[in-house]
Design goal:
This protein is of the alpha+beta class and about 425 residues long. The chain has 14 helices and 16 strands.
Length: about 425
């Protein structure tokens, strides 16, 4: 009887202990589930108040990293630049900067060249990266894209170098010729010869300065502020009259034709300069006793009718490798010939800017030894006026800083012949 009671008592005690142990284990498990874990700290960090709003309005690419180098927040620009991939910062130098800043709290900045994603070209993306601590556990990375700024700076530097070289040539020639005149004061024939050369160089210098002024003006001015209807017939007559002396000296026939009574809407001075440059180039690069034609017509386009003005010559033509560069500033297909004709290398760059600022384009067709056709396409007066009223006139691209070809300058097929133009003396 006593044995049975002892067994029962032992069983009761064991049951009680088991229950107590089970309850303690349950309570401990609940506490562990409620306690923040290291993993949860890494995957669900909290940004300081207001940081998310500030990052959303920054122009720079922004990335926030936690203490495990995981991306907490990244702007869309950061993804576009390829800085963040798979929730991680993909640029190792920036990642190392973030770790160093997290360790010592120092703000760091560096400029890097990164490979450009998805272009298939070896171009580098120039960026400036700045890392700073954000609270006690987070690090903020701001990345600024410097690629375009560097390109524009290089273009300006090259432009200044080209201008300096172009100005130095006639100025140096004038200096040498003036010394020659002084040394030949007792030789009237030599003085007359050197004075003639001085006049040529002075004219070249004057043309260069004037075209620099014209190029600056068409880049900075809004041509539609003083816009007016401009008759094509008047522009063509003015361009022919401008080149009549050069054409007569080479016995070049100039002919005008096409559709009459056409008008475009724009700045008369800029349009006259653009067409005059095309005609002047055609005369300068044509052999003696050839023909230069200027013709205009109306063509139908989805955005409204366009006016096409084509200038055709029978000159030396342009090679394929030069077609894509002829609208660059100071670029010459034949430098020696340009020197002989007094060309500055800015005429076609001015034409390009005038066309773009009037919502048009300039195209070229050419074949070596057969001649060239340059075509200005501009909106007709009514369509262009409506576009200006709606404030939809596009500005120039940044590529125009370089004077290189873009959507404004293209290579086209031969221009369709017009009806027989009128021959002008």
């Amino acid at each position: 009887m006593d044995v049975n009671a002892a067994v029962a008592a032992a069983a009761a005690i064991a049951g009680v202990l088991t229950g107590v142990i089970a309850m303690l284990a349950f309570r401990w498990s609940e506490r562990e589930q409620k306690r923040p874990t290291r993993t949860s700290l890494h995957t669900d960090p909290v940004l300081p108040p207001g940081v998310d709003t500030v990052l959303s309005v920054l122009r720079s690419s922004a990335v926030v990293l936690d203490e495990a180098d995981a991306v907490v927040k990244a702007s869309s620009a950061a993804y576009a630049l390829g800085l963040v991939r798979g929730g991680k910062l993909a640029v190792e130098p920036m990642l190392q900067m973030a770790r160093d800043t997290r360790r010592d709290g120092e703000i760091r900045q560096v400029e890097l060249d990164l490979p450009r994603r998805g272009t298939g070209r070896g171009e580098a993306l120039a960026v400036s990266a700045r890392v700073a601590p954000l609270g006690s556990r987070l690090v903020l990375l701001l990345v600024e894209d410097l690629t375009e700024a560097r390109r524009i700076e290089a273009v300006r530097r090259d432009f200044v170098a080209n201008v300096s070289h172009e100005l130095k040539t006639p100025v140096g020639a004038l200096s040498l010729l003036s010394e020659a005149v002084m040394g030949a004061s007792d030789d009237p024939e030599a003085v007359e010869r050197f004075a003639g050369r001085m006049q040529i160089e002075a004219t070249r210098l004057t043309n260069l300065v004037q075209e620099l002024i014209d190029l600056s003006r068409v880049q900075n001015d809004d041509p539609l502020e003083d816009a007016e209807p401009v008759r094509i017939d008047e522009l063509v007559a003015e361009a022919i009259d401008r080149c009549r002396h050069q054409a007569g000296a080479k016995q070049i026939t100039m002919a005008a034709g096409g559709t009459a009574d056409l008008s475009i809407w724009g700045n008369r001075g800029q349009l006259a300069a653009a067409l005059g440059n095309l005609v002047e180039n055609a005369v300068n690069y044509s052999p003696a006793r050839t023909r230069v034609g200027i013709a205009a017509r109306r063509v139908t386009a989805p955005g409204g009718d366009l006016i096409e003005i084509a200038v055709t010559d029978q000159g030396i033509g342009i090679s394929d490798k030069d077609k894509e560069r002829i609208f660059e500033r100071f670029y010459r297909v034949d430098p020696a010939r340009s020197r002989a004709t007094g060309g500055t290398g800015l005429g076609l760059a001015i034409v390009k800017h005038v066309a773009a600022s009037h919502s048009g384009e300039v195209t070229v067709w050419s074949s070596e030894g057969q001649g060239s056709t340059f075509t200005l396409r501009l909106p007709e007066a009514g369509a262009a006026r409506d576009r200006a009223t709606d404030d939809q006139t596009p500005g120039l691209d940044e590529d125009d800083e370089t004077g290189q070809t873009d959507g404004t300058t293209t290579v086209s097929s031969p221009y369709e012949p017009f009806s027989a133009p009128e021959v002008l003396p």
